[in-house]
Specification:
single chain, 74 residues, mainly alpha, 0% strand, globular, Cro/C1-type_HTH, DNA-binding, Transcriptional regulator, Lambda_DNA-bd_dom_sf
């Protein structure tokens, strides 16, 4: 179970990183916009942070994507 959760966090984090980079933001810029630390962004992108749906909602709002794309990735 824990391995599965880590894999899911890692896949979501990788997708968020890809979207962030396509939008032209670095981690510091996105952290400032979202009012979180750069370290938090890094941990989420690397699958090392157990984040909530609230964080996903923030990412989808600030990076302008639909959360459903995260669950459709293989």
């Amino acid at each position: 179970m824990e391995i599965h959760l880590h894999d899911c966090r890692l896949k979501i984090g990788e997708t968020i990183r890809e979207i962030r980079e396509k939008k032209g933001y670095n981690q510091e810029q996105l952290a400032d916009i979202m009012n979180v630390s750069r370290t938090t962004i890094s941990k989420i992108e690397n699958g090392k942070f157990n984040f909530s749906i609230d964080y996903l909602s923030k990412f989808s709002w600030f990076l302008d994507f639909n959360i459903s794309i995260l669950t459709n990735r293989k």
